[in-house]
Design a protein that fits this description.
The complex is a heterodimer of chains A (about 350) and B (about 280). Chain A has about 350 residues and is α+β, with helices and mostly antiparallel strands. Chain A has 8 helices and 19 strands. In chain A, the strands form 4 sheets. In chain A, strands 6-7-8-3-9-10 form a 6-stranded mixed sheet, sandwiched between helices. A 5-stranded antiparallel sheet of chain A has the order 13-12-11-14-19. In chain A, a hairpin with a 4-residue loop joins β15 and β16. Chain A starts with a strand and ends in an 8-residue tail after the last strand. Chain B has about 280 residues and is mostly helical. Chain B has a domain of about 160 residues: Orthogonal Bundle (MetI-like fold), CATH 1.10.3720.10. Chain B starts with a helix and ends in a 6-residue tail after the last helix. Classes of the chains: A alpha+beta (about 350), B mainly alpha (about 280).
């Protein structure tokens, strides 16, 4: 177990800078998830921690030892790859014990460690098989077993669940979290799936275009996003962004509707343009709310999602982004074309600067 | 048109196409077989006879009686075996290195060695081997066959290693393997089908090579293709024994290819890195 300290790390390929100075402190035993859209540099950052990519600037330290020039084999880390990367010519037992055999570990110790890991992951009956004889979920477990057997300082996961089907992904998510609670090994996990990040992480690092947008606990990011990117990225369905301006004690949308601010008016902001952010579940029916036409109703059983078009806004294709999403816990008889009146909960709404994207 | 009939016609059309495509190779082979089993009188007959009334098994026995055929067979085995073995020992790591370093320029340089016509460097090399006192041994032929076998092995292995997933080697790197351990314990075992292909092609090219043998071989160090050529005499061409000898020369390579083909197919399906 170990801490990982990333200090002002940069990565460039030629003149193209992929990671533009990133600093993260990872405590001993912490489960940290790097999340962001494709191409944000999260996988590259993970590979730099692993030693598979050279570091162009800054330092990476594992347990206070700078490892910039330490080859992967001497970093005492274990990595789980997206494609599992199981050695196809070795049995499951051999796959799991490969690292130990390279270190000339005693046979009895190898057997004990492999059996312990196989026990944790339920791989016992599969030890004699080859990777090609296993299903996707089983292979994923073997890849994790290979990491557990090592008993490394840090676990690194590179989008380990993206090759699995939806149901298995949810199951493996729980298993990985359980495994971490049991072993308490420092873990860095990369994913583009914010649900994975929300459900598993102790700490989430939201990355975008090679920089860190925000670091924080999952619910902290959800409740207090630092900017519009984080607000829009975390949470599904995504937060509604309504452009307009602040005036008096409220917010006026471009369509002319009034939205409440609950007295949280930023200073010196009369008439100032702003973006009103409200999560889909933070609307409620209100007689004095804004009128909106129901466009689509999507019942999922446990909840209902509704796409609404504010009547203040002109209908048309370019107004698609003005459409709002509303999530209700209860079932509804609303039909497309009906008009409902809804109001956001001002205590849970956010205001953003439309130019910088920062929260006001 | 009814459906079964249509299907039948489709199949027949396919069969005709396949026959047309393979006929040059196949007919050539069948004719060689026919020649090797006919007496001289039948071989010259017009219209040509495909299946003779009497089989001339004698053609096969004469090649083993008259010439030192077994010696030449042994020579061929040594030259091809040594040249292929050495090519694999050098070429597989070289192919791996070039593929991983993306050193495509050095790959081109190696290809140039293969493209240069053999005759352009045969004579200087002949003088060199004479000066070294190696003529009369199999060494000159083994060494010069490397010009054929090494590039083949390297090029096939470059192509193969470029397709093997990098993630496996990265996994081994993280698992604590050194460069050589990664090569020996991960890259090499996975590349087995590629190595088999390289081995077979190297054997075929080396086994059938004629030019190097005719220049460098003495009476005792002839390889099989040269020996077959020497069956053509000035007075007459005895087609029967010649065809029989050619068939015997082809046989080992043929058997090897057929035997190893299964290995190649089995190897291709064994990879399986991704799910599904």
């Amino acid at each position: 177990m170990a801490s990982v300290s990333i200090r002002n790390v940069r990565k460039s390929y030629g003149t193209v800078e992929i990671i533009k100075g990133v600093s993260i402190d990872i405590q001993d035993g912490e489960f940290v998830i790097l999340v962001g859209p494709s191409g944000c540099g999260k996988s590259t950052l993970l590979r730099m921690i692993a030693g598979l990519e050279e570091i162009s600037g800054g330092t990476v330290a594992i347990d206070d030892r700078v490892v910039n020039d330490v080859p992967p084999k001497d970093r005492d880390i274990a990595m789980v790859f997206q494609n599992y990367a199981l050695y196809p010519h070795m049995t499951i037992a051999d796959n799991m014990s490969f690292a130990l055999r390279l270190k000339n570990t005693a046979k009895s110790e190898i057997t004990a460690k492999v059996e312990r890991a196989a026990g944790i992951l339920g791989l016992g009956p599969l030890l004699g098989r080859f990777p090609r004889q296993l299903s996707g979920g089983q292979r994923q477990r073997v890849a994790m077993g290979r990491a557990i057997v090592r008993d490394p300082k840090v676990f690194l996961f590179d989008e380990p669940l993206s090759n699995l089907d939806a149901k298995l992904r949810v199951q493996m998510r729980t298993e990985i979290k359980e495994m971490h609670q049991r072993l308490k090994t420092t873990t860095v996990y990369v994913t583009h799936d914010q649900i994975e990040a929300m459900t598993m992480a102790d700490k989430i690092v939201v990355m975008h275009d090679g920089i860190i947008e925000q670091i924080g606990a999952p619910l902290d990011l959800y409740d207090n996003p630092a900017n519009m990117f984080v607000a829009g990225f975390i949470g599904s369905p995504a937060m509604n962004f309504i452009p307009g301006s602040i005036g008096g004690d409220g917010f006026t949308t471009e369509g002319g509707d009034r939205l409440p601010l609950g007295g949280r008016v930023p200073a010196a902001s009369d008439g100032r343009p702003a973006v009103y952010g409200v999560r889909p579940e933070h609307f409620r029916l209100a007689d004095d709310g804004m009128a909106a036409e129901v466009v689509v109703v999507e019942p999922t059983g446990s909840e209902t999602q509704m796409v609404l078009r504010p009547l203040g806004a002109k209908a048309g294709r370019e107004d698609r982004k003005r459409e709002l999403t509303w999530v209700l816990r209860e079932r509804t008889g609303a039909k497309p074309g009906e008009v409902v009146r809804i109001a956001p909960d001002p205590a849970l709404a956010h205001l953003f600067n439309p130019d910088t994207g920062l929260r006001l | 048109m009814s459906r079964p009939l249509r299907k039948l016609l489709d199949k027949a059309g396919m069969a005709v196409c396949v026959l047309l495509l393979v006929s040059p190779a196949l007919l050539f082979f069948i004719w060689m077989l026919s020649l090797s089993l006919k007496f001289e009188i039948d071989n010259g007959a017009y219209p040509p006879i495909l299946i003779p009334d009497r089989f001339a098994w004698k053609n096969y026995t004469t090649i083993f009686e008259g010439n030192s055929f077994l010696l030449y067979f042994w020579n061929s085995l040594i030259v091809t075996g040594a040249a292929t073995l050495f090519a694999l020992v050098v070429g597989v790591p070289a192919g791996y290195g070039i593929a991983r370093m993306k050193a495509h320029k050095s790959a081109v340089v190696i290809m140039i060695a293969r493209m240069t016509p053999g005759l352009s460097f045969l004579i200087p090399l002949f003088l060199l081997f004479q000066w070294l006192g190696l003529l009369g041994t199999l060494w000159p032929q083994i060494i010069i066959h490397l010009v054929v076998t090494v590039p083949i092995v390297i090029w096939i292995m470059i192509g193969y290693f470029e397709t093997t997933p990098m993630e496996l080697e990265e996994a081994a790197m993280v698992d604590g393997a050194t460069r050589w351990q990664i090569f020996a314990k991960v890259a090499l075992p996975i590349a087995k089908p590629g190595i088999v292909v390289a081995f077979i092609l190297s054997v075929i090219f080396s086994w059938n090579n004629f030019v190097f043998g005719i220049v460098l071989a003495s009476r005792e160090t002839r390889t099989l293709p040269v020996a077959v050529y020497n069956m053509l005499s000035f007075e007459q061409v005895s087609w029967g024994p010649l065809a029989a000898a050619a068939l015997v020369v082809t046989l080992p390579v043929l058997i090897l290819t057929v035997a190893a083909q299964r290995q190649i197919v089995a190897g291709l399906t064994a990879g399986a890195v991704k799910g599904g």
